[in-house]
Amino acid sequence: MGIAKDSIESLKLKARISDFVLASTSGKLRGNKGMAICPFHGEKTASMSFTDEENLFHCFGCKEGGDIFKYVQLINNIEFQESVEVVAEKYAFNLKYTDSQFESNQKSLIQMMKIISDYFISKY
Question: How would residue 111 be classed by pLDDT, with cut points 50, 70 and 90?
Answer without folding.
Answer: confident
